Amino acid sequence: MFRLVIFRSSVALLFTIGIASRGASEETASAPVNIDEQLATIVASTRVPGMVALVLKGDRTIAQGAAGVRKRGSLDFLRTDDRFLLCSAGKAMTSTLAAMAVDEGRISWTTNLGGALPEITEMNPEWRLATLEELLEHRAGAPADLDRFWPLFRIEFSSGSPSEKRLKVVKQILSKPPVYKPGSQYVYSSLDYFVVCTLLEKLYGKSSETLIQQRLWNPIGILGGSFGAPGRNGELNQPWGHWGMFVTGHPVKPDGFVARLTMPLYYGPIGASQMTIGDWAKFISLHLRGDPENPNRQVKLITPASFAALHMSKQGSFYESGWILTNKDWANGRRHGDTGRIISSQGDNGFWHCEAWIAPEIDSAFLVVCNQGGPSPDKAASIACNKAVELLANEFTALPK
Which of 32, 335, 385, 391 ranks highest by number of CB atoms within 10 Å? Predict the structure, then answer.
């Protein structure tokens, strides 16, 4: 009997060890591939302070890594759970909020400003026919961002909540004639999205910051998102942004004068959102899986029609509702009719740069964040992020021809 007990115990122990070993093996097999070395090569060649990248397959992270430092000249290395400013990548989030309002019947894509904001009595008559859809497409008539740089700067240092400051901007813009006939052309302008935020705040009676946290971030698991540059009080507990336009690679104090000058807090979800790349990936996965061309489509939070409205060009333009539209060979799913379609969310304020490239036909996405800015294609941050996307796409999207 004693030998039988020992035998049974030994068998049970071996069985338990086998299960544990198999579990550990499966966990290891499903762990994201470390891409630190690939990113380190790009950081060295482009001389940016650092970058973090992540590769999605559907809603699963299959690769991630970090390289470089939080602040040039320091030995504080970047981590994959560090926080980055998303800048204008927040516009795609704002348009998603607008889609929720459309789905709920509170507003329509063709609702015009005259009907939506009648309380703005100083609105120029030419603005009254501009629609929500045109605002999201940068086709409503607003002047380019730089045309209003100093007025926006003065508002940042005025009194009032972020919502009140946005309303000041909206009233200033709408009191003057649009710079072109609404719907007639494309001019990129964050001012369009200030109007969208004002519309949403009126509909729901809450600030845009509260709306995006309660209605978008929390439902998809983004619990650590906030607003403004990461880090406070000059500490190096998070990455610092770095000049990439005039003084390349120079660190910028996160809560200092220059940071407030270039990305005021009242930009809110339009351009001041900050979070980890892992949290941003939750939003990107939402749109990756919601796209009409994804073979593994799983629609959440907004309707199939709204995903299509946000992702598909209505004017033959390269831009739609916060997304840049393009095509890449590596993004082609090889099905009949596939074109390698890409929808990309990007942001840059001169100190921070981020890019997310969604390839719905192959159910994949590539996210890169850099703690240096400079938006034009020949700037180091833009070059570094594009190199990372191309390298990772070629490594993780190999499909049979």
Answer: 385
Domain ranges within the chain, ordered by starting residue: 33-91+221-396, 93-98+107-207
190's tokens = 């964050």
* Phi, psi at 51, each rounded to 5°: -160, 155
Q: Are 201 and 164 in contact (CB under 8 A)?
A: no
Q: How far apart are CA 72 and CA 216, in angstroms?
A: 34
Burial label for 390, CB within 10 Å (0-12, 13-18, 19+), is middle
Pairing of strands 33-34, 60-68: parallel
For residue 245, what pLDDT band results from cuts at 50, 70 and 90? Answer: confident
CA–CA distance from 156 to each of 5, 151, 163 (Å)? 77, 9, 12
Q: What are phi and psi of 288, to 5 degrees?
A: -60, -50
Determine how many CB atoms are found less than 10 A away from the CB of residue 316. 6
How far is the C-alpha of 167 from the C-alpha of 260, rounded, in Å? 18
Which residue in 284, 386, 369, 346 sits closest to 66, CA to CA? 369
In the chain, the largest separation of any two C-alpha atoms, in whole Å, equals: 96
pTM, two decimals, is: 0.90
Residue showing tokens 């964050």: 190
- Pairing outcome for strands 60-68 and 364-370: unpaired
Sorted by sequence, the CB contacts under 8 Å of residue 370 that are 6+ apart come out as 48, 49, 50, 51, 84, 352, 353, 354, 381, 384, 385
Q: Using DSSP, state whether 312 is helix, strand or coil.
A: coil
Q: Is 165 helix (H, G, I), strand (E, B) or coil?
A: helix
Nearest-5° angle of CA 48, CA 51, CA 53? 150
34 token code pair = 């470390």
- Give SS3 for 344: strand
* One-letter amino acid of 11: V
CATH says 33-91+221-396 is which class?
alpha beta
Q: DSSP states of 221-260 as a string?
A: T--S-EESSS--TT--SSPPEE--SSSTT-EE-TTSHHHH
The structure tokens 């191309």 sit at 390
pLDDT level of residue 156 (50, 70, 90 thresholds): confident
The pLDDT-based confidence of 253 (bands split at 50, 70, 90) is confident
pLDDT above 80 for 10: no
